Every structure is written in C-alpha cells, then in structure tokens.
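comment on this one:
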Amino acid sequence: MSRVPPSADGCGLAEWLAARFRYHDLATWRAEIAAGRVLRNGAATHADERLASGDQIAYRPAPAPPRAGPPVAIVHDDPDFVVVDKPAHLVAHADGAFVQNTFVHELARRCGDGTKLTLVHRLDRETSGLLLLAKNAATNTALQAQFAAGTVHKRYLAVVHGVVRDDHITIDAPIGPAVHSTIAARRAVVDADSKQARAARTDLEVLERFPTHTLLRLTPRTGRTHQLRVHLEHAGHPLVGDKLYGRNDAEYLEYIQHVKAGGDPAWGDRLGAGRQLLHAAALHFAHPRTSNPLELTAPVPADLSRFLAALRD
C-alpha cells in the first residue's frame, strides 16, 4: 500500500502508477485496475480517476501458488492447541486464492480428526520461530485474552547493525503511522499525543558483540505493529536484512520494484542477509484449560547460525 504524495495531487491513477512503479507499463496498469486489483482508499476505482494527496493506493496482484516446503516442525501438540517452529519465508496467513495449500491447512491435516486451526497471533513472513494455533474457538478466545492482558511473554533473537553499547536497554516509546512517509505500512516512534499513537515498550539485552553487528535478545512488553523493527530503527540499530526499516522510502520502493520485476529477493548483498534476522525463540503462556505455565523454545535456525558463525570468523 502506498500513500499519494502532494506532488501527485490531481494526477490520473494509471499514469501515476506507471511513473512510480515501473515494473508494469501503462497498459498493464490499466488492465490491473480494470481487473479490480487496485484499490483507492479501500474501494474499487478506474484508470483515469484523479488522485488526491493522502490517498491510499493498494495493489493486490494475482496470487501465485505457494512453493512447496518441508513439513513445519511441531514443538508442542495439545488437544486444544499446537505450537510450531515456523521457518522463515513461510506465509502464516490462512487466506487468499490458494488457501488450501497454505501450511496451516497442511498442519491441520497432520493434526487429524477434521481439526480446523486458527492463528492466535502472527509472525512476519521472514520471521522464523514459535507460532501458536488454536484447535477450537474456545481455546482461541482464551489465548487471545491472555495476549490482550499482556500475560503472554515472547523472546526473540535479532542481529542488528552496529555495536550496541549498553548491556540492557529499555525502549519505552509510542508507535504510530509514519506521517512523513509515502509508505502506508511504515510505522515510527511518535509523540505520545500524536494521532493514533500507541504506547510501546521493548527490552533489549546484548548477547554477543561483533565488530559491526550485535546479537540481541528482545522482549516485547506490548504488541504493536512492527514494534521490534521500529524500536530497533529508533535506537539506531536496525535489523539486518530489513527491507523497510533502517532505509528511506526510495530505497524500499526500489527494492519492491526489483522483486516485482523478477529480481532476486536477497538483492545481492545490499540487505546484508537473505531475510530479516529475527527469530521468535521462546514463548511463555498459561495452558488455557489448566492454567499451568508453559515455556516453549525453538532452536536457532540454520541460516541465522551460519550468519553468526561468519561474524565470529
């Protein structure tokens, strides 16, 4: 999703898209708009509609079937829920044109007995680690209540740019839309009295320092959109491999254009890693029936281990 800048006020939609996102020519953009794959402020539009500054333009390209991958490792299987170790690059959303091919449905088949799984929370596509899914509505409601109450505790491993000086840091800084960005999805640290500002807190602990990088343990105390990535950027230590945070809008849009034109998502060595180096390593919550505490962990994935080994060498 992109926000129309003041300089494009009054421009035709198709012309603006063709000038801004050059992976499609004007004729292709007109066809995509006619097919209903472009929305203006959440509604259908037409190619010659005139834009206004601040409009939000969303593009939903025709989906492609997900690539087959190895079975997702089950960390904990319970009659009411299951916890898996999600690999990086695996989409967790259980929707879209190829919904029956997503790993959630394959996992439900493995659980058997007609189980229908519901994601209790989400991980970004590139984030690896622990993901909790409910097997029934009552369990989903109970677990969602724990998340809302702040009694579910998660810990992440992250490799960031730069050497973090202090062993322990708490970032207590509200997060809201990045109002000066043309990228609608971008969030930023904002003033507490800003519109849509939401309180956010993250605890950082240094695990290992390298000449130009740091391995951190992150403990989010709130659950805001992109919280860890925003707070790391705010601290001056963006996540290695992050496409959006730690770089400007133009570079992010250049990356999106590169990928949509068929380029390598790793973008050569410009990102520093093949994905954002964030791993959900530990998950603590109360069993929804017994209230007994559960502490689950996921091992460091192979790609993150290789990256750390290269830093140590």
